[in-house]
Amino acid sequence: MAATEKPSPAAYRNLFVATVGFVLTFWAWDLIAPLGSDYRDRLGLSSVQQSLLVAVPVIVGSVGRVPVGALTDRYGARLMFPLVSALTIVPVLLLIPARHSYAATLAVGFVLGLAGTTFAIGVPLVNSWFPPARRGFALGVFGMGMGGVALSGYFTPRIAAHGETLPFLVVAAALAVYAALAALLLRDRPGRPVPSDSLTARLGRAGRLRVTWELSALYAIGFGGIVAFGVYLPTYLKTWYGLSPTDAGTKAAGFALLTVIARPFGGWLADRVHPALVTAAALGFVALLAVVQAFDPALDPVGTICFLCIAAGLGTASGSVFALVAQVTPQAQVGSVTGIVGAVGGLGGFVPPLVMGAVYSAKDSYSIGFMLLSDLALAGCVYAYGRMRTVRPDGAGAQPPGGPGRGVVAVGQSGDE
Known about the structure:
Structural class: mainly alpha
């Protein structure tokens, strides 16, 4: 597909179906967290045990993107998306009998991490269907599927109020319907390059690309920051500003919503300006606002404005980074690189809350934590501007050893334009 071509109706159909699947699987991925207090009370969990119960699916889902992305390169999203969605039904339903045992719930939560891998399936699918001039916005729209976590946080406890097993049954039914529809509607791009070598070889080749780790670092700042604020912002608002749990949760939900909205904006902007420049500007904006917040301003209005602007900056950076992935990664390796980048981004969200908690325990202040965020965002800003804007587009500066054609075969054409 040439860069000047408009996306076909099939491209938009695949984008829509993939985004819906991303929303549903991310809802499933986050089923335990909104019910954390219920598990704590029923099983008598300590705060550490409760945190581990919530963290296990997220960690497994983040790490699992690496092999799933590589498998998507090989077998295509038409197989992988319905398959992963259908397999996710198993741990969702197993949460029902496991809910009275901490060990059993922890084990099921490990398997539930599978739901968090669909990010690495959808990105190469969307990337292959859209021309370079439209990929940033399309990937940003797909990235809005991370809003499934916010939907889970809002709806899961409310559904559970009508029956403690009802959320699991509802999500399982939705996944079953989606898996069937995805098998019928999703199509891989005709002629997409398919690697013919082993999973290990492909992951090794992706890992040897310099851009893989550069993009991972930038995504760890952008998306990792979103994850970190999603995890820690309610605690921060309750501890420092004395908000009630309801008010803190409402403001945290507003933060999450703005990051979801800003992500396609970042992709759209990256289609018009070099994505490295968009990333640099967004992270520079975050660095500035983090410095302001480090001085502990009043929540209304300065603190609220700071957090909303930080949310917009992080969301924009997350969208533009994946526009950059599409631009500097060889097409046959998009899934493998996406898996690694997505894994690092997801895992990157677990370090800041630990740092913030440790700093507060030691200094009774969050200011140092926000200054560290500012330093990190500024470093990403400088690197994105100084290095990533010089990487040649369409993977020309990021070829694997042996050139772009090594270990790659083309899929036969099929008529689904």
